[in-house]
Each structure stands twice: as structure tokens, then as C-alpha cells.
Amino acid sequence: MNQKKYKTALILFFISIIYTCSMNMLNVYFIKKANPTNAEINARSLVYNATVYSIDNYWYLNHVKNYLATGKFTVDTSKYRYEVRRTPVYPLFYGAHYLLFGEKGSYISIRYTQTFLLALAVALLFLAVYNFTGNKTIGLFAALLYGLQPCVALNAFFTNTESLSSVLVCYFLFGLSLCKLNPSKKNWLITGVLFALGVLCRPPIIFLAISCLFAIFYFNKWNFKNSIISGIFFLFGAAILFSPWITRNYKVTNGDIVFLEKYYGDPMDYGMPNVYLRSWISCWMNPADFSSERISNMMMSNLSNKEPLSKKNIVDSIVNNLPTRALIGNNKTAINSTLSDLYEYYRFKNLPGFKNQFDSTDKVVTKKMHLLKSNFIKKSAIDYYIITPLLFAKSVIFQSNSTSLTFLDNYHGNYLKIAVKALLYLINVFSFLSILFLLFYIRKYLDVYLISTLGIACTFFVIIYILQYFENRYNFPVYPFMYTLLAISLYEIFSTLKDRFRKN
After folding, report:
1. Cα–Cα–Cα angle for 430, 431, 435, rounded to 5 degrees
2. Cα Rg for the chain, rounded, in angstroms?
């Protein structure tokens, strides 16, 4: 049986390579068709006719280039302490391609490296689920659901953390499955290294630590001594990668302990008032759907173009398009006044010699934005703590995760596109519903069920209640868990139906 499962894993590896290359060639074709001049558009244009352009390229591709030019491994040498702004795995991963193949060659070659790593992840996910369940069919379902998910495949031709994050989670999950078969010191050490590798690529993966804690005790049959020993080796494995990064951060920041990444002030260069604007928006809806950055860009663009529209027109257009829930605890006059001050903040931000006015306006706007949020919570704590989080959960669950698919642009009226989008939508919904459905089978799949649900629950708790911001790409680290649960659910449903047909 062992030889058969490795043959199956090898077949899945090659299926993934063929599918990923085919899907990306198709996506590139539609990008070129929709954007023949290759105007720079996020996820709808190409870099060197190779990878798909991402606005996040700025955050991950400059480190090695800046290091070679200035000796600083940083996103931007002009920014204060940006040496610790991003975790190092993807910048180093891209940087290796840059050093080996040069500027243009890096974008061409990285596609194939990422395709290979994804195919390996598909094969290892199959083996992991097989190790957890002892069921080849469930392993196949999980690997195919993951490997054939279009957005997972398409990200092999992007240059951002989503290209690797879920792949590294598959490797980590495989490591955990080996610990189930044999909770040896060696296996826990390797799993710790894989965990750290994932976290240093995409920091939210650290919330899978709760899943690790459960696995350590469960695989050691709740023996406290053995669990502590396993935990020590797991932490030692993680420390192999974390220690150099933390030590380096301590040196470049002159004494700050930065475990993963840190920003000093505004995380996206829009100023702290924008951070507080996003915080107020998150009271009543997902800021990804009503972007604070878009508001700031609108104001800054108008100012840089010498104000073809008046400040009043800009601010009124924003206020008049606010949803009803935005007015909870605040009237339009207060909101208009706050946004008007935000406009002036950007005026002074771009004018040399106006530092005093800039600093004063910064404080005024920040205070007013904070007051908008406070008023919202005072008026309706139920909206803030219950209704808005439920709206976040709705956007997490009820979506198709298909933004990378250029083929699905302008899908209205096209039945084929609607069918594809509906299928992806249903897969996402049923993946989450599997969490509830498998409660009926929890004893049969206790370890993999709790490892998966704890990882998913912790990730989305942080997104909904702490980060208070969600984009569909945030699903990537939990895809392996979601599709594992869905695979088990499908197997149990089909098995039940099969048994009933036999009886009839």
C-alpha cells in the first residue's frame, strides 16, 4: 500500500504541473486580450510578459535589490525602519531568482519554481490526509480540491506571498501527519522548521500554533512528559529560523524585539489619519469593500492635479455615497467635517515648509476619526461586536475566491462564466459548512478535524475581531484545511449514499 500511495502522489504531482501551466497560459491569454497595451493594472497586466503584475510587488521584490545597492535588506531605503516591515521568506525567495537569473529572468524563472513547489504541495497534501485518515480516497479528494482550485494554481505566476503561503502550510501539515505516525523528536523538529518557514512567509500562519499545541498533546496520548519533550523539539526547530531573524531585527532597530514584522507609524504610507479612517470604516463594514486608501487616493490625486474639483465636491461625493450603517452614532455634518480636515491633511503633507500645520492637522484628524469610532460603539455596541463581525463572516464564507481569474471578468450574462463562478462559490460555502457537518463524525476524524478547525477558527477570529479587514487572498493559508474537511465530508456523503443504494 505504501508503494501505491507514493505512486498516486507522483501522479498528482504531474497532474498539478500540467493543470497549473495550462491555467496560467489561459489566464495570460485573457490578460493580453483584455489589456493589449499592457497598461499597468493590478492582476490584469504582465511583468516582462511573464508573471502577473501585483501592486504588492513593491513590498516583496525590492529587498535584495536594495541590499546590493545600499547594504540594507529593506522594502524602501528612504523609509524609517522598513528593514523590519516585511518577513523575509518571500523577499529571499524572489531574491535568489534575481541573483541567479537577473531582473527579467527572475520573473520568467520564478513561475516554474512556484509551479514545482505547488505540485509538491499537492502531492504532500495527499500523503498528509492519507496519513491522518488512512483513506486514499479522502486524500485524493483533498489534493484535487486544493490543486485544481483556480486561484491557487494561478498564483504560481504571481510574485507575492500568496504564491507560497498555502504551499508551505501543506508542507507543515505533512510534517504534522508524520508526527501522528511517529511522534519522534526528529519529526517534531522538522515540523517546527516547516512551521517557522510558513510564518516567516505569511505572519498570520502563526495562529496555527493552537493546532500545533493540540497535536503535540494528542499525538503523545496526553502524556505530559512526552508532550513537553515534543514541544521543546518543535520550538527548537522553529527557533532555527526565527532566531537569526529576531537577532538581525534587534540590531537594525537598535534594540527592538521584532518577532515577525513591525511598522512604525502608518503601515501603508497614507498617514496615521488613514489608519484611523479604516478603523472607523471597520465598525460598519469590511474596509476592503469601502476602501480608506481609495478615499485618500481620491483626495491626493485631486490635489496633485491642482484641484480640478473643489474640496467640497470631493468630500460631498464621499459622504453622499456612505451606506446607511456609516451614520450610526454620527451625522453627515460630523463626518463631512472630519473628511474635510483629512483633505487639508493631505494638502499640507505634500507641501514643503508646512510641517507645523501638517503635524497639527494630523492630530486633529486622528482625534476626530477616533471620535467617529467611539460614537459608533456608544450608539450601538451590538452593531460593533455582533452585527458587523457577522457581515465579515458572511463575506468570508459566501464568495467564489475568483478575483485572479481574468476569464471571469464581466461575467454577467455569460452562462459559462456564471457556472464556473457558482461552482467556486459553492465549494467555498460547503468547505465552511463541513466544519458543522463533521461534528457528526468527530470521533472518527478527531485529530485532523480539530487541527483543521482550530487553525481556521483562530485565523478568522483574528481577521474579524482584531485585523477587522478581509480580502479573499487571506483564505490562502487555510485552503489546505478547508479542502481537507470538505474531502472528508464528500467521502462520508458518498459512502452513505452508496450504502443506501446497495440496500435498495
Report:
1. 100
2. 24
